[in-house]
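Lecture 7 notes: from sequence to structure.

We start with a single chain of 123 residues. Read the sequence below before looking at the structure.
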Amino acid sequence: MEIKTFPVPEPFCWDESFSVGYKELDEEHQGLFKIVSEINNNRNSASLLKKCKELAISHFLCEEKRQQKANFAGYDLEKKVHDEFLEVLGKVSCPVTDEVVNFAKDWLVQHIKNYDMLYKGKL
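Now the structure, written as tokens:
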């Protein structure tokens, strides 16, 4: 699989180029963009950080269940990449650093564009 590098939008917000074609998953992606932006503006908010972790876990489970149900060939890789992100996110605490915010922004963009787009039309 060839991984491409996509630009991180500024301001950091979801747009149609991130649509995977499934309303529920697009809405969850929009929520992840929003919470990362909120954390960027509120670096000391433990409640926002907790909400971000919960949203990520919930979204990944939803996405993975859909992939399993559809026998999506990319499931194992997707699950591995999700787990790696959650491991990093689990170690984050307040105040959230620029490095972490930039990592989360970049990860979300690259993940949707390189991995999630692979299941578009297949779930």
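The helical segments are 23-41, 46-69, 75-90, 98-114. Keep this in mind for problem set 3.
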